[in-house]
């Protein structure tokens, strides 16, 4: 205990939750049945708490590619690309990714977390400035921490605040590296990317790194993400992403037209000093990448599901995030009601994510629901009914109308 | 930019801290008031209230500097320094 004394608040909050009989961090998926169903606590449960936006984890083509490659190339690489060599799968996936995005170069990492860690810590040096959106993912903050640049946060999704801060840095010689996300993982909101690009263009030596973790496969005509939807691809200097969400596997990547890009393979430590992805994983990712380009109907179905789910919940009087997005957050009044809501929901057969302090500021508690294109309509209807029933059980609507929320 | 005095900065720091303070509205805030133990502010909330101050004084407080801010006094002297360059 003495070693981790500084985390006492975390322990206290976790113990408090467990004393209420709730342990969201101890969830065990006993058996996966499909992208949208699992056995939890011995019960068949509908999943609305994944990042499996296109339902590809059980796509038979991805499964077959993965199994086949495990037989042909073995279960793992046992080392890093730099020390132990690249497999054909690594380099062909990199050219597939570069082709997919229409960029010159691509680099594959072992996770999306490591992609952000590596890119952000390496492209910004001691005289440079990293400008992070306040709501950035932990991997972005950690990348900034691992690096040597001066780190400045700007207000979430606020191009004017970024502009003000860049303006104040104009006399400083270093590069200004702006880090944004396509869709934010907890509130599901998109970056106002066109406006951010306009701000970037006002300043010398300014670059944008865009993390499309939750928007790849989800936004854009061929699934290239927010940069494609907003038609600003040429102005994004580095796109980072993950294979762990819409592509249904694990791994991360970065694509860029930067002429210096190849040097990253020799200096980017989170790329160099960790084992490379197993070829079987890559095989499923390559298949999934082809599917998201060739089957836009997956995206249409996803957005139809989002439309249905969001409208149903809004009509019932749930307090939701402002935007329609595959991530649908429901605001809950406090930790007590939040944990009870989450727990009853699970008992009633639906698994969602609960997000609360200290991971959120000002006591905000969210039930994070995420939509999958593989959700059947009647499955989503059932989820809506169960959400309503659960809300009534915990008195959500009564509290809601009295506006007793921690945060507006 | 002109030079700012601590006496000009501190009242604005108090005003913003009072807005976020969760320990009741009548807490007296001095330079020694600890943001975490006296005002019950979690680290994310501190980062957010710092944004309000950054806007008020048109500055950016880098994150490595933020991590050294423990008290209302630390906050006030950091702002005074950064806003007076
Ligand atoms: C915005 C964002 N970036 C990066 C990651 C990390 O991705 P990975 O799961 O591949 O490590 C995540 C998800 O965890 C994320 O939400």
Span between termini of chain A: 37 Å
What count of helical segments of chain B does DSSP give? 4
Q: What's the architecture of chain B, going by CATH?
A: Orthogonal Bundle
Distance between the termini of chain B: 6 Å
Overall tally of structural domains of chain A: 2
Helix content of chain B: 40-55%
Which CATH architecture of the largest domain in chain A is right?
3-Layer(aba) Sandwich
The number of E-state strands of chain A comes to 14
User: What is the 3D shape of chain A?
Assistant: globular
CATH class of the largest domain in chain A: Alpha Beta
The small molecules bound here are: pyridoxal-5'-phosphate
Query: What would the average pLDDT of chain A be, to the nearest integer?
Result: 95
Pattern of helices and strands of chain A? HEEEHHHEHEHEHEHEHEEHHHHEHEEEHH
What does this protein look like?
- The complex is a heterodimer of chains A (408) and B (85).
- Chain A is of the alpha/beta class and 408 residues long.
- Chain A has 16 helices and 14 strands.
- In chain A, the strands form 3 sheets. In chain A, strands 4-10-9-8-7-5-6 form a 7-stranded mixed beta sheet, with helices on both faces. In chain A, strands 1-2-3-12 form a 4-stranded mixed beta sheet. In chain A, strands 11-14-13 form a 3-stranded antiparallel beta sheet.
- In chain A, strand 7 (176-181), helix 8 (193-201) and strand 8 (206-211) form a beta-alpha-beta unit.
- In chain A, helix 4 packs parallel to helix 12, helix 7 (159-168) runs parallel beside helix 8 (193-201) and helix 13 (296-316) packs parallel to helix 15.
- Chain A is globular and about 60 Å long.
- Chain A starts with 7 loop residues before the first helix and ends in a 7-residue tail after the last helix.
- The relative contact order of chain A is 0.16.
- Chain B has a single domain (6-83), classed as Orthogonal Bundle (Non-ribosomal Peptide Synthetase Peptidyl Carrier Protein, Chain A), CATH 1.10.1200.10.
- Chain B contains 4 helices and no strands.
- Chain B is globular, with a radius of gyration of 12 Å.
- The A-B interface holds A 9, 134, 144, 150-153, 155, 161, 164-165, 168-169, 357-358, 360-362 and B 20, 42-45, 47-48, 51, 55, 58-60, 62-64.
- Pyridoxal-5'-phosphate is lined by residues 111-113, 116, 137, 139, 181, 185, 211, 213-214, 242, 244, 252 of chain A.
- Pyridoxal-5'-phosphate binds at residues 111-113, 116, 137, 139, 181, 185, 211, 213-214, 242, 244, 252 of chain A.
């Amino acid at each position: 205990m003495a070693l981790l004394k500084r985390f006492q608040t975390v322990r206290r909050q976790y113990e408090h939750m467990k004393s209420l009989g709730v342990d969201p961090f101890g969830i065990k998926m006993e058996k996966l049945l499909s992208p949208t169903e699992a056995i939890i606590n011995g019960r068949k449960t509908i999943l609305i708490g994944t990042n499996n936006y296109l339902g590809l984890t059980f796509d038979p083509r991805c499964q077959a590619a993965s199994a086949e490659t495990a037989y042909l190339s073995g279960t793992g690489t046992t080392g890093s690309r730099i020390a132990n060599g690249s497999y054909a799968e690594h380099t062909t996936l990199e050219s597939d990714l570069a082709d997919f995005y229409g960029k010159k170069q691509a680099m594959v990492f072992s996770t999306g977390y490591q992609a952000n860690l590596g890119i952000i810590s390496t492209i910004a040096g001691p005289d440079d400035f990293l400008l992070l959106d306040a709501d950035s993912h932990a991997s972005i903050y950690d990348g900034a921490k691992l690096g040597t640049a001066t780190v400045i946060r700007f207000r979430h999704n606020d191009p004017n605040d970024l502009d003000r801060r860049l303006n104040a840095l104009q006399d400083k010689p270093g590069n200004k590296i702006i880090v944004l996300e396509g869709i934010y993982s907890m509130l599901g909101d998109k970056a106002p990317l066109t406006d951010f690009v306009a701000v970037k263009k006002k300043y010398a030596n300014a670059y944008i790194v865009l993390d499309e973790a939750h928007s790849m496969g989800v936004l854009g005509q061929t699934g290239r993400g927010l940069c494609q939807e907003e038609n600003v691809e040429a102005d994004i200097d580095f796109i980072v992403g993950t294979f762990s969400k819409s592509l249904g596997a694990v791994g991360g990547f970065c694509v860029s037209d930067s002429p210096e890009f190849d040097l990253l393979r020799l200096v980017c430590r989170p790329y160099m000093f960790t084992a490379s992805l197993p070829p079987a994983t890559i095989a499923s990712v390559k298949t999934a990448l082809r599917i998201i380009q060739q089957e836009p109907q997956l995206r249409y179905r996803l957005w139809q599901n989002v439309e249905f789910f969001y409208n149903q919940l809004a009509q019932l009087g749930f307090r939701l995030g402002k935007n329609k997005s595959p991530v649908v957050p429901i605001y809950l009044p406090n930790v007590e009601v939040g944990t009870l809501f989450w727990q009853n929901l699970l008992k009633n057969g639906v698994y969602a994510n609960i997000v609360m302090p200290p991971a959120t500021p000002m006591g905000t508690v969210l039930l994070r629901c995420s939509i999958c294109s593989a959700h059947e309509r009647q499955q989503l209807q059932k989820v809506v009914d169960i959400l309503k029933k659960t809300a009534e059980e915990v008195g959500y609507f009564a509290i809601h109308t009295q506006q007793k929320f921690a945060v507006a | 930019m002109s030079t700012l005095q601590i006496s000009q900065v501190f009242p604005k720091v108090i005003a913003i801290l009072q807005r976020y303070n969760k320990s009741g509205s009548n807490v007296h805030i001095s330079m020694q008031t600890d943001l975490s133990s006296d005002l019950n502010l979690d680290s994310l909330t501190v980062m957010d209230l710092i944004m309000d101050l950054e806007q008020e004084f048109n500055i950016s407080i880098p994150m490595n500097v933020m991590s050294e801010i423990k008290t209302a006094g630390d906050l006030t002297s950091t702002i005074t320094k950064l806003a007076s360059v």
